[in-house]
């Protein structure tokens, strides 16, 4: 298989090295049906990859690569519950959180369904006021304490779907920076606040520091034993949750086969169920499930996650484009880029293959983004005219949930126009003609012409959502999750571990002590110098 994969990569790389490989406009000129042939639908979403330089020949080579790398076989192994997270010897069964699966995944789903049933009962009891705080007040606010995958998913979905009048107000505390807590604090009435400590490991330094801080505040506010009735835990580490003092009936577990960045569908989503209502959380899961079905069933050539991954492989490995911007044209999706940063960069930022050999080619690109149209007024200049191209994912929502049609038309028009401008550019003749028509003097035209030319042929994908509702958002997140998995298979890397996060964590521990005691230990000269200076600035 390794030889076949190498040969398939060689073919893709040879195509990318051929003259004009990055051109997109000629593909449209040659084929009036390009949109029809290069967009596909699945899980309620539409993906258009036509505005990329993926031609029929390139797509055929990329699909050959997917077959050689046995993407379909790896996918099915993941769904069966095999230990696809090889370094940690774990399955990756986030799909099982969203529905029943054949084989080993089926057992995992039954287990997940039991926890979901407990989450639903808890949610209902809180909403009905059957479970109340220490002072017998109903809970109206849910504070989720967590970081990384125990924060970004719930925050992103919460920002996307929560509306005034929904069952509970969601508040998130992620960063260990005390200013975060100081910002959150005035928004909280301890008597009405339910606190969720969300941590897969229940050992994450920042989360535990915040959890203890909030526990002290809660005990000071509602009484020394009050915390017990105000706290719940979302974790795989039942020993640590007990040690923290959270009773078993308030612990919502999940298993180690749920990766942190894939965990919003598990107990980690409890803040969503509480704030949005159970039915809407269930609809989110159902939306993801629709994308799962599509990913598992659709042929590779019309499979949205597979196509999105193949386009990325073409950009990264073929065309040397090691970054991608994500622009959701929906303000409610403003935290989607942050979620994708973790999902994609933590999963695909790997330098060795599953066998421990150095990867023979580049892996995950840098992902960044901002909602449109705001992005247009910040970094899009570089995307339009910078010498290095930046592929973009545009996400457009057909129907808004407001009545301001004019605004929505402007929003959508801008999204479409950005993608069209990146594709078509504007050549010197057009710029000259426009300036001449405006009566600009020849010398001025000559001076400004190079600055006003747009090269075009800059690639983008567009994803259309009918409406930004629970089902479509669930499908969108699952689309990116599966895309990450496919890229892992193509690159031969494990997308489910994150060893690279460890070293900094380990090294922080002694530095905390040094900051406490003022005694600087052995470090490189820069770190020692900065520590000394920090201590001096603090008057230590
Ligand atoms: O949920 P926790 O165990 O607290 O982990 C929170 C986060 O921290 C770690 O450093 C990992 O890099 C993330 O993948 C994880 O989501």
Automatic annotation (TrEMBL):
Subcellular location, record wording: Cytoplasm
Gene3D superfamilies on file: 1.10.1390.10, Glucose-6-phosphate isomerase like protein, domain 1 (3.40.50.10490)
Keywords of this entry: Cytoplasm, Gluconeogenesis, Glycolysis, Isomerase
First-level EC class: isomerase
This protein's pathway: Carbohydrate biosynthesis; gluconeogenesis; Carbohydrate degradation; glycolysis; D-glyceraldehyde 3-phosphate and glycerone phosphate from D-glucose: step 2/4
GO cellular component: cytosol
Keyword Acetylation annotated: no
Principal cellular location given in the protein's record: cytoplasm
Active site, UniProt feature: 346 (proton donor), 377, 505
Catalytic activity: alpha-D-glucose 6-phosphate = beta-D-fructose 6-phosphate
UniProt-listed Enzyme Commission number(s): 5.3.1.9
GO molecular-function term, one example from the UniProt record: carbohydrate derivative binding
Biological processes, Gene Ontology terms: gluconeogenesis; glucose 6-phosphate metabolic process; glycolytic process
Function (record text): Catalyzes the reversible isomerization of glucose-6-phosphate to fructose-6-phosphate.
Family to which this protein belongs: Belongs to the GPI family.
Name listed for the protein in its UniProt record: Glucose-6-phosphate isomerase
